[in-house]
Structure of Zinc-ribbon 15 domain-containing protein:
Amino acid sequence: MFIIFGTRGREVNERSGQFNCPNCCSQQNTTTDEKKQKYTQIKIAKYFTLFFIPIFSYETLGRYIKCNECNNDYNEKVLEYVPPTFEEQIASYVEQELKSGTPISMLVNKLKAQGFDEQQSTNAVNNVVKGNIVSCHQCKMDFLKGVEKCSLCEGRISG
Ligand SMILES: [Zn+2]
Ligand SMILES: [Zn+2]
């Protein structure tokens, strides 16, 4: 009789647990490090097969983490992922706006329009600006250092 043996790659569910899925967290606006999504850790292993039936794994080719909710695949490091806090999210929004050329005072007003009070808005902006201010010579608007052109009057800015 013929004995047919060979090898084949196979995915095995190794374990499961709770984690912070970067995709689900950003969609649900999760800002705590409470691990909410379920994951499955999948091992890709090379199996020794006998009559096409996997008998035992002899080599691990890799592992990945699958989110049970959105089905995204991640590197194992995702298990350590902590979503950014509310403050961190604001800071990155403020930084983005300032770098794209939004005048400092306008950004403060923008934040206030979104429901922050004067103090919160000013602090959020100041924490990012940290005194790195440049002004437009023509309209006297203040910008984050690094902005080269005034978005209001098109004037050139220099510190
Ligand atoms: Zn997910
Ligand atoms: Zn200007």
